[in-house]
Automatic annotation (TrEMBL):
EC code(s) of this entry: 1.2.1.27
Protein name: methylmalonate-semialdehyde dehydrogenase (CoA acylating)
Keyword Zinc-finger: no
Pfam families given in the database record: Aldedh (PF00171)
Domain Aldehyde dehydrogenase, residue spans: 17-479
GO biological process: L-valine catabolic process; thymine catabolic process
Length: 501
């Protein structure tokens, strides 16, 4: 019988009743390995009921105690790393080492969130007026939700969960229906770590579940990560409903290669950043901008040599550099874009479309592709392909490269490869992108900084993880207090003034 993944509500598995299921594939085999229950509105409401009932007690729990539970949770995730990575890889397709990286980057943020006792501290000013003091405190929002994509089934749910619950909220996760098993296991492990029932709930589902989460007035904030059109629509919807949202979308990350860069290092960096995880990363580098003809010619040669040595294989093949795409639809989309690039006149230097992995003929594999002489009007340049395709756009100077980056619709990540400190400094100051790498191809900030793109890559004022996450998941309350020690001098009718009242 096909394995089924259901919901995790109130500290227990709750079987879905909709009789609607999504298929969960093993992308290396191209076959369905499980099915996931798609929640009804009532099931989502039940999760919100449970979360709302559990949250006040959790919010009143000493933050250090909350942090200790997170610490135990971190420990349990590490103890179960092999099992979690295998589960993650089997549904996503990424190789095991990369799946462990996915989980580790999630733990990075849980560990940061353990600093809640410090991060939640308010400010205090005494004697703002005669006998009057003012202090501020950060309070949780109540019930908050995370809606997450398929491509980091552990990391992104943990980025949302950690700060949200450390701050005293109850959290409902609606993970991607393509990779539901790891989020479910994480919820089980959180219970085992001592998290009270109802503080971390997982409802699986599709748009019906998201709509139910949006429409319930008790859910106060949404941390969304996924494609740009959905990010934008959830952000607008939340604003209409007077709720808080931070919504992170798609990307097209550029890398400028200056003529003084070490091109062997650059080629190694680009191959890893463009093709790792089959390009299914929002921080994947998908456009290279070599400055000058010689830089471009040498770079294409070095990339071509390295691509020939890449190994594509199933997630449990220890020699594989990357695995299959997540689904048949993704494979069709990437192949379609490559066809469009060829039709538009780009030079397809390496064509990965027909790759077959022996023993995995039905898997959703695609080889690495490299385009040269791409121009800014081509769909392979304008659109997020989300596959192992690297486009080279030749530029004559740094200003032309910078303009391309700044004019692009997306602004998630970017890199410059150079030995020129002046160029790098100018680049960091003027580039219109949220996360910048200087000789670092995938500049994903560490958990105690914040992560977020600009332009169509991110909607909302606050970023993910780091101090912003605590600001996002809390409200500030400011208290002005006076303890009367002298008799009243009568009513006052002017605005209280700090230094005179
Ligand atoms: P997706 O937009 O298809 O799905 C994301 C989530 O939204 C899933 O939980 C899905 O069930 C839900 N969803 C889908 N359609 C919906 C609808 N109509 N209404 C409400 N909810 C809906 O994205 P995906 O394919 O899972 O993930 C890949 C995308 O995520 C890429 O564009 C990638 O760049 C982006 N991404 C961005 C970041 C970032 O931080 N900027 C990080 C990772 C992934």
């Amino acid at each position: 019988m096909t394995r089924e993944v259901h919901h995790y509500i109130g500290g227990d598995t709750v079987s879905g009743t909709s009789n609607r299921f999504g298929d969960v594939y093993n992308p290396a085999e191209g076959a369905v390995q499980a099915r996931v229950a798609l929640a009804t509105r009532d099931e989502v409401t039940k999760a919100i009921d449970v979360a709302a009932a559990a949250q006040p007690k959790w919010a009143a729990t000493n933050p250090q105690r909350r942090a200790r539970i997170l610490g135990k949770f971190v420990e349990l995730i590490r103890e179960n790393m092999d099992e979690l990575a295998a589960l993650l890889s089997s549904e996503h397709g990424k190789v095991l080492a990369d799946a462990k990286g996915d989980i580790e980057r999630g733990l990075d943020v849980l560990e940061f969130a353990m600093g809640a006792p410090h991060l939640l501290k308010g400010e205090y000013s005494d004697s703002v007026g005669t006998g009057i003091d003012t202090y501020s405190m950060r309070q949780p929002l109540g019930v908050v939700a995370g809606i997450t994509p398929f491509n980091f089934p552990a990391m992104i749910p943990l980025w949302k969960l950690g700060p949200a619950i450390a701050a005293g909220n109850a959290f409902i996760l609606k993970p991607s229906e393509r990779c539901p098993s790891v989020p479910f296991r994480l919820a089980e492990l959180a219970s085992e770590a001592g998290l009270p029932d109802g503080i971390f709930n997982v409802v699986n589902g599709d748009r019906t579940a998201v709509d139910a989460l949006m429409e319930d007035p008790r859910v106060r904030a949404y941390g969304f990560v996924g494609s740009t059109p959905i990010a934008q629509s959830i952000f607008s919807r939340a604003a209409e409903l007077g709720k808080r949202a931070q919504c992170f979308g798609g990307a097209k990350n550029h890398c400028i290669i200056m003529p003084d860069a070490d091109l062997d290092q650059v080629a190694d960096a680009l191959v890893g950043a463009a093709y790792g995880s089959a390009g299914e990363r929002c921080m994947a580098l998908s456009v290279a901008l070599p400055v000058g003809k010689e830089t471009a010619d040498v770079l294409v040669e070095k990339l071509t040599e390295r691509i020939a040595n890449l190994k594509v294989g199933a997630y449990d093949d220890p020699n594989a550099d990357y695995g299959p795409l997540v689904g048949r639809d993704a494979l069709d989309r990437v192949r379609r874009y490559i066809g469009e690039g060829v039709d538009a006149g780009a030079e397809l230097v390496v064509d990965g479309r027909d790759l077959v992995v022996p023993g995995h003929e039905a898997g959703f594999f695609i080889g690495p592709s490299l385009f040269d002489n791409v121009t800014a009007d081509m769909s392979i340049y304008t659109d997020e392909i989300f596959g192992p395709v690297l486009c080279i756009v030749r530029v004559s100077d740094y200003e032309e490269a910078l303009k391309l980056v700044n004019d692009h619709e997306y602004g998630n990540g970017v890199a410059i490869m150079t030995n020129n400190g002046g160029a790098a400094r100018d680049f960091a100051a003027r580039v219109q992108v949220g996360m910048v790498g200087i000789n670092v191809p995938i500049p994903v900030p560490i958990g105690y900084y914040t992560f977020g793109g600009w332009k169509a890559s991110g909607f909302g004022d606050l970023n993910q993880h780091g101090p912003d996450a605590f600001r996002f998941y809390t409200k500030t309350k400011t208290v002005t207090e006076r303890w009367p020690s002298e008799p009243s001098t009568g009513a006052k009718f002017i605005m209280p003034l700090g230094d005179q009242s």
